[in-house]
Amino acid sequence: MLYFIPTPIGNLGDISLRSLELLNVCRFVFCEDTRVCKHLIALLNERFQTSIKPYKILSLHSHNEKEVLEKLDLELFKDNVAYLSDAGMPGISDPGFALVQFALKHKLSYEVLPGANAALVALVSSNLCEKEFIFLGFLANKGKERQKDIENLLSNPYPSVLYESPKRILSLVQNIAKLEPEKELFAMKEISKKFQTSFRGRAKNLAKELESVNLSGEWVLVVAKSLHNFAHNSLCEEDILALDLPLKVKSKLLAKMSGKNSKELYQKLLLSQNEVK
């Protein structure tokens, strides 16, 4: 049986009793970083007086998962096997997706345990979400792609939750403040750790506040939903195609919406037009 086991994101006490019980019987443990995993197991054994001693700890992360899974012997899963993130829920901005895919492909039994998750802690703490929300993980690191991500999150009809590094959290809030200074934001860092801190306010005010704050630690940002009426104001591809505009203009508009190459879109529109004729 394959178990996906969430790990504490700051406080060892957040590990569940069931997770400890399963780790005690898992012979093989896959993890992001074997050093982090071994250190975590040592801390758990010391704190909870357990004797977690897997036969083997194997590295499986975003840079090697394809190679590892291609060579993996299915006989291994006749034993109990665990997958651990460095911290938090596997598969949520952490490796895990490919291993679930692998299990489904080979009809392997697997189970995902509930556990610590920074996004949900921040979301509930923010009081910006009554029901629906959008989880974005990490935005693009730089350039036009990042700017497009920021513009998109500000237009979401539901509150958006995202992760950010200490190197980029200030610039992210500053960029939001330039586009929508009155946008309600909630930021939280070092969740469940000793120096857990939260910040709340309009983007323009939060940008100033963070300038004088120690930004070290992992961040979660919750962005209030857009108040625009999307049902009446949004355009779709069909709307643009129906407009009486030159093909080059249509292709540029479609490229802006989709992020695709405008020249390739123009050629497709031109081809479609010729086929109709």
Automatic annotation (TrEMBL):
GO terms for molecular function: rRNA (cytosine-2'-O-)-methyltransferase activity. GO terms for cellular component: cytoplasm. It is an enzyme of class 2 (transferase). Residues 1-206 form the Tetrapyrrole methylase domain. The keyword Cytoplasm applies. Keywords: Cytoplasm, Methyltransferase, rRNA processing, S-adenosyl-L-methionine, Transferase. It is found in: Cytoplasm. InterPro entries: 4pyrrol_Mease, 4pyrrol_Methylase_sf, 4pyrrole_Mease_sub1, 4pyrrole_Mease_sub2, rRNA_ssu_MeTfrase_I, SAM_MeTrfase_RsmI_CS. Its EC number is 2.1.1.198. Its main location: cytoplasm. It catalyses: cytidine(1402) in 16S rRNA + S-adenosyl-L-methionine = 2'-O-methylcytidine(1402) in 16S rRNA + S-adenosyl-L-homocysteine + H(+). HAMAP family: 16SrRNA_methyltr_I. Belongs to the methyltransferase superfamily. RsmI family. Catalyzes the 2'-O-methylation of the ribose of cytidine 1402 (C1402) in 16S rRNA. This is Ribosomal RNA small subunit methyltransferase I.
